[in-house]
Amino acid sequence: MMDICLLGTGGMMPLPYRALTSLLVRCKGKGFLIDCGEATQISIRRRGWSFHDIDTILITHFHADHISGLPGLLLAMGNAERHEKVLIAGPRGLQHVVQSLLVIAPRLPFPLEFREIDGQEDCFSIDDMEITAFRLEHSMTCYGYSLHLPRAGQFDPEAAKKLGLPVQLWHVLQKGENAEYEGRVYTSDQVMGPPRKGLKVTYATDTRPVERIIEQAKGADLFICEGMYGEKDGPEKAREKKHMTMQDAAQLAKKAGVPELWLTHFSPSMVNPLEYEEEIRAIFPAAVIPKDRRTKELRFED
Amino acid sequence: MMDICLLGTGGMMPLPYRALTSLLVRCKGKGFLIDCGEATQISIRRRGWSFHDIDTILITHFHADHISGLPGLLLAMGNAERHEKVLIAGPRGLQHVVQSLLVIAPRLPFPLEFREIDGQEDCFSIDDMEITAFRLEHSMTCYGYSLHLPRAGQFDPEAAKKLGLPVQLWHVLQKGENAEYEGRVYTSDQVMGPPRKGLKVTYATDTRPVERIIEQAKGADLFICEGMYGEKDGPEKAREKKHMTMQDAAQLAKKAGVPELWLTHFSPSMVNPLEYEEEIRAIFPAAVIPKDRRTKELRFED
């Protein structure tokens, strides 16, 4: 299971009625946060989710609206008695940027580990969660992220019985490990079916609507994508500022064939993004124009 | 006239229902901000006051809850088309701290000027406004601030007539300048009475209740002071963390003889500071336990 909360839907600056875009994902007792703008910690409090369990913070890029809340969040995590390491991943230069910001929070009660991302793509795992960072096209180096929780194949008890394995060893193979019994080694694939569909969420902001996003979003259960402008002259503004329109995002979702799209990172000039809903849904019917803190529980099929 | 808005009343971390302590003062088209924590810019928006006119930012100290919102505020000021210089004053090391924070806002459309404060006291003026920074006693170097708008004496038209000065020159003397007429120099004090009572607000947080605060608050029309704890074991916590209690603040206000005290910088653990109101008013009847964005207009007497 993956719990997903879009903590805010705004871009550029936090507004009284619209928090900055940031995503919190909970899975198996671990928290993954993508971006942390000013007041993201307030939105987490409003949602009532824990600070303590945020193990991984993924930063898309270093514009203030995506990272300015980091010192405050890390201090709040310290106040929530976190002592375990926190991993922060983001573009090259991350450690310098974070350490500069931490001039006002020089002592945290937990260590930080940095993963600086380079090149077009970077894949790494945090326990079961597979994270893919993929390069976007913005006015500075920026990455989108996919979080993928794989699911093992189905266990075949008949196969295990045929091998003559005692029941006490079944759980070892079910976890994907090898089991040894009476001098012989048994491998997981002898008793497990092919991997089943896992859970995946893909997050892309701030960026032009490049092809790579379609490839990355394929297979996602939920695609969260910026749609900074909706208005008539949106395409022009989006080109100029290296963003995309809600219509662009809907096209990407359509091409990726995802079951659901949430738009986000609305321009402060866009007072009511819902006025474009009909137009967007004509392109991609499963588009959602969410309110702050929209939440969804992704569950394995069947 | 001085417009005063206490943008928040919280300490340590911003809460959904309580913004961090910060004060915005407007006077003659200029804005003076004391402290800028995470989400202070949201509180300014909520109040509806302009970002554009904030000319002076006074920082008490470098704990995150008093300065973490600075990059976001400066960016918002840039978005509000500010191009004129902004003065930032604060303890020694200010420029290094602010420039570190600005790693995520490297290009602002206005220049910054820094005034690093040292020693026990520092006085400077921004146009008519006289600012006094005074050293507090906290776990790091910290300053309180008084903002004083002086008021000239009353103009005496009879005296001006006696001097034989034409009416067209009166306004020169009224502004405190010298006037020349038929080869003679006339000075302001020849037609103006003694200076009248001006307007003054004094702001002190985070600190132990040291004597110096009483001296500084004397003559203030409004004294804004931290009262981090109200509970029974408050004095112990306050000593340990180099803060003060609401009761301490009330004693300071009483000794300074101010007409009004606003308490602020409430601990996140204090859910309802109003429960201590009766006790505090028994010490100092003109104590106010304000809500965020409490506003007051100070006007000259008569």
Structural commentary:
Two copies of one chain form a homodimer. In chain A, α9 runs parallel beside α10. Chain A is globular and about 70 Å long. A seven-stranded mixed beta sheet of chain A has the order 6-5-4-3-2-1-16, with helices on one face. Chain A has a seven-stranded mixed beta sheet with strand order 7-8-9-12-13-14-15. Chain A has a two-stranded antiparallel sheet with strand order 10-11. Chain A contains ten helices and 16 strands. Chain A has helices at residues 40-47, 64-67, 70-79, 94-101, 157-162, 170-174, 211-217, 234-241, 246-256, 277-283; strands spanning 2-8, 22-27, 30-34, 54-58, 86-91, 112-117, 121-126, 129-135, 143-151, 179-181, 184-186, 196-204, 222-226, 261-264, 287-288, 294-298. The first copy, chain A, is an alpha/beta fold and 302 residues long. Chains A and B meet through α1, α2, α3 and α4 of A and α1, α2, α3 and α4 of B.
Labels describing this entry:
302 residues; 7-stranded mixed sheet; 25% helix
Could you give the topology of this structure?
The structure is a homodimer of 302-residue chains.
Chain A: E1 2-8, E2 22-27, E3 30-34, H1 40-47, E4 54-58, H2 64-67, H3 70-79, E5 86-91, H4 94-101, E6 112-117, E7 121-126, E8 129-135, E9 143-151, H5 157-162, H6 170-174, E10 179-181, E11 184-186, E12 196-204, H7 211-217, E13 222-226, H8 234-241, H9 246-256, E14 261-264, H10 277-283, E15 287-288, E16 294-298
Parallel strand pairs in A: 3-4, 4-5, 5-6, 12-13, 13-14, 14-15
Antiparallel strand pairs in A: 1-2, 1-16, 2-3, 7-8, 8-9, 9-12, 10-11
